[in-house]
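Technical annex B. To support the medicinal chemistry partners, we prepared a structural model of the target in complex with cobalt (II) ion, based solely on the information shown next.
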Amino acid sequence: MITIKSNREIELMKEACRVAAIAHKEIELNIKPGMTTYDLDILAENAIRKNGAIPAEKGYPSEVKGMPDYPASTCISINDEVIHGVPSKKRVIKDGDIVSVDLVALKNGFNGDMARTYLVGNVSKEAKRLVEVTKQAFFEGIKFAKKGNRIGDISHAIGEYVKSQGYSVLKEFQGHGIGREMHEDPGIPNYGKAGRGARLEPGMTLAIEPMVLAGSPEIWELEDGWTIATQDGQLSAHYENTILITEKEPNILTIL
Ligand code: MF3
Ligand code: CO
């Protein structure tokens, strides 16, 4: 079921999203070689809690039965890791890394979801282009995030743009509705046919999140039961905002 948020609920969504953006700002200002992904996780967690929210990823149940709940406040995925990298005191960020950070702030019962891929130090030209294309894919997608259009219009625009740039999208994971739950209907794949899927209506809040692979789209899951990495070892990037469908242009809630 797709939930349409009331004006009051939209205000609460905006506040949760604002906290997610503040946590990202903290990471953007502090990320540097020599830090561990655990250090970054703590920075984000402190920023989220200081602003009256809870890091909603912590304790998120695994999809695999019997596997532990998600243990950290953020997902941090470096280079060939695509998503759901688990922060660790042993994982040191190096010069030239591209570091994807995905976090969710839960405040007053509503979730704000946001991801960015950060360039650390001297990053290769190709890696920069991948990160730029991933960001642009989001903006290509939300050109269609308008009342009366369909989810498939967004998916199609993202997928075609990424393909046109010589990259592939992750097929096994997708964007999603968001609100009281981190993951609500509808699912929003990063590829698909235009004109298909649910119709967009004002008051829908959606997490649109291109996950882009420089090489082949094949992935595998690491032994930790969470981290998704490319099979070919090539780079991957992620760019996500929570948006609001309105009568006119979409409102990007996770950009301050
Ligand atoms: N924030 C992610 C998303 O974009 C979900 C992370 S999975 C979790 O949907 F287990 F870490 F919560
Ligand atoms: Co998301």
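Notes passed to the chemistry partners:
The chain has a mean pLDDT of 98.
Helices lie at 7-30, 37-50, 125-142, 151-164.
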